[in-house]
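Checklist before submission:
- one chain only
- standard amino acids only
- sequence pasted in full

Submission:
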Amino acid sequence: MIEIHQDEIQHSHSFDEAYSYLKRMGEIKLTTSGGKHFVASSNITKDGRFVIRFFQNGKEYARAYNCCWRHYYNCNRTRIGMYTKALDYILE
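Returned file contents:
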C-alpha cells in the first residue's frame, strides 16, 4: 500500500519558489518526461493553505502542498512526482 509522502524526489527549487512563479505567471502548460501534457496553477485553499494544482484535459488530477513538494506521492497518496519534476525543471 502506498504511504502518505512516499518516495523522495530531489528538486532544485522549493515549493515557495514554484508557487510564487505560478502566482506571477498564472496557469502554465507543461509536459511530463513521459510526454503527458498538463496545466499547473497556484491557489489558496478554503482553510488558507497554499497549493499547486495539476490538471489534465480540464480535470484536476493532483495537488501539491508544501509538505508534499519533495515526495512522489502527496497527502492523499496521489502521484505528483512527474508534475513537480516538470515544474521544477522550468524554474531553472
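Reviewer check: The beta strands are 28-31, 37-44, 50-56, 59-64.
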